Amino acid sequence: MKIRLAASADEIKLAQALRHEVFVGGQGLDGDRYDETCAHLFVIDEQSGVSPYALSDGCLVATTRLIGQREAERLGGFYSASEFDLEPLLKRQSHLKFLELGRTCILPQARGTAVMELLWQGIWDYVRQHGYDVMIGCASFEGSDPTDHAAALQFLSQHAKAPEEWQAEALPQMRAPMSAITSPAPDLKAMLKALPPLIKGYVRLGCYIGDGCVVDKVFNTVDVLIILPVRAINPRYFQRFGQPA
Questions:
Q1: Which structural domains are found in the chain, ordered by start?
Q2: What percent of the chain shows pLDDT beyond 70?
């Protein structure tokens, strides 16, 4: 397998089709106003057989998109600002350069550690190449009832909550509490293992979690805000993926 960026409008449409299958189901395109401007990172299986996501150099099995702060500002703000109030965070950290990660998806048959690690390697290479200081983005739990994820949300609220200088809150009209629903104290190792793979990966890297979660009824998910300053990343991961620039 290998990683690279989408190289044409047709390849972006392929990413949109993969996203639609994973997020919604069936054929169609999942697209919005950010897609033409942002970078689309691909994980490509060079050994894969016939696939509706065939490229000249293999088959697309995973994708995520990368929206730089300058590009987001030209479009009226980051995508995640539709769910979380980012302005106070961006003002407090105005000396830093933000990159938004979003629309991450992996075909069910390709899910596993190898693909997740390739996605992260591609993201990290992009961060280093372009000099970003902070990664942000929404990450999701499947299903739109926060009570179904009470233990996990409580775990994130207690063990990964952003300190004040990095805090960002869910928009008041969309906010659902993360710790108001009490549940028995979870076993920390078991709880971490049970988190969705994307969220678990970010937590292991050292991310912060914003205040409150949001129910996205369109995609049938419960979303949390990931905030990952480069300086907060656990240094042991640099041995595998490369030192910061």
A1: 64-241 (3.40.630)
A2: 95
